[in-house]
Amino acid sequence: MKKYAPTIPVCQLDENNYFVGMTTADLDPLEGNGHYLIPRLCIEAEEPDFKAGYIAQWTGESWQYIEDHRGESVYIKETGQEIKISEPGELPKTVTTTPYPDSFHHWSEKENKWVMSLEAEAQKQQQINNERQAKINTLLSVSTEKIAAHQDMIDFADTEEERTEAEKGLLAWRKYRAALLKYQKGLISELPSTPKE
């Protein structure tokens, strides 16, 4: 009497016939003739080869390999909106894997990349300049308040020690304000550090 293995390896598929992994089928104890109880969504076939970036799909006769970008982020060329790929298959022609830089860019099919028009470039530069100026204005306002406070401390100091401390603070904040003004005019390239209190 022929002896059969108690289990055999089988390929497990999902609802769309994509390979999920390997499992086993048990020998049917009632038949005793080599008939195995194949679990649902499983097939008797050789395990498919692993190919990076692809998923194996059973055609009914053999394995075919489908591009698999699931979990990857892509960007809609029309809007720059980021989306996550959830289904296997080739990427649509309407998306790119190149991250969308910012709202000043648009997709150029001809150059196959995000580009900026001269007008958008000027707008972006204007925005950078406005943000830079707003930051400088805020810092100048803070330093002017600090200078006024230190001047008050000097004018109304009760002790020589208090006066000396206030003078040190006044000098530090005046130097800082002068450096800010130089930075604003482009005379120095780095934003000065705020004085330590």
Nutshell version of this structure?
The protein has two helices and eleven strands. Helix content is 32%, strand content 24%. The longest helix is centred in the last third of the chain and has 38 residues, at 118-155.
Could you describe the 3D structure shown?
With 197 residues, this protein is of the alpha+beta class. The chain contains 2 helices and 11 strands, in the order βββββββββββαα. The chain has a 4-stranded antiparallel β-sheet, with no helix packed on it. A 3-stranded antiparallel β-sheet has the order 8-7-9, with no helix packed on it. Strands 5-6 form a two-stranded antiparallel ribbon. A hairpin with a 4-residue loop joins β5 and β6. The radius of gyration is 35 Å and the shape is elongated. The chain starts with 6 loop residues before the first strand and ends in a 13-residue tail after the last helix. The mean pLDDT is 93.
Order of helices and strands: EEEEEEEEEEEHH
Mean pLDDT comes to 93
Using only CA atoms, what is the Rg? Answer: 35 Å
Strand order of the largest sheet: 3-2-1-4
Unreliably modeled segments? none
Give the overall shape.
elongated
Tally of DSSP helical segments: 2
Helix % is: 25-40%
SSE-based structural type:
alpha+beta
- Report the sheet-strand fraction: 15-25%
Could you give the distance between the termini?
94 Å
Number of strands: 11
Biggest beta-sheet profile: 4 strands, antiparallel
